[in-house]
Amino acid sequence: MKVQKVRDLTLIDLGQEKTIVVACDSCGGIGLKEYDVLKVSPFITGKYTARVALFEILCSGAEVVCLANTICNEMEVTGKKIIAGIEEELEEAGIGKIVLTGSTEENFATFATGFGVTAVGIVGNKNLKVNTVKAEALLIAIGQPKVGEEVITSPKGNIASYDSLKGLLCSDKVYELVPVGSKGILYEAQQLAQNNNMQLILHHNLQIDIHKSAGPSTVVIAAIEENFFPHIDIPGRVEVIGRLRIK
Hints:
CATH class of the largest domain: Alpha Beta
Strand order of the largest sheet: 1-2-3-8-6-7
Strand content: 25-35%
CATH architecture of the largest domain: 2-Layer Sandwich
Distance between the termini: 31 Å
Radius of gyration: 18 Å
């Protein structure tokens, strides 16, 4: 059994042309407890933290089969609200009944909200979109980098959506998709180029901030066949940020 780590993904080759994909995310200090920095409902905490792990799995081409939540707070009431947020995010993603499991902290009182999530997916190797850029490609960014309160107040059209992913995943002219989080667009683009042994050529005078955190994956970057770009019809902002060239 072959196990490898690529970006924020763990890939487990099961043989028989199938791979398990594992992704996780964590969130601290965002909730309604005394020492939380950003005061929002734990429902929002659950929803957007789950989104990060789900985007990672879906962008790889895999189908989500299990999601584990590790809640560092009591079930009543914080845990229940976090779980309700997870369930709503699963519904938005169009993901049906999967195994949703987890744990809460019932032994000690907590004064800040803490939450981690691990998502597990499975994919046929021929559909796996990881390290699959084999030719020169156009690099585009879908959505805008948002973090913290911006995520909550920003119009949904400014944030990468599940509909965006579905429209891209079904095309063989889309080589690879990468969600962007706290390290920003430039970092993820550099990782994408490095992992595929390609050279990253950025466009000049970019309108999008490539250094800013994209919080809970509010941006997805995609490496696509160049002549496919005029045919892309997905909701939200789309900007060409550069190219991947063969070294």
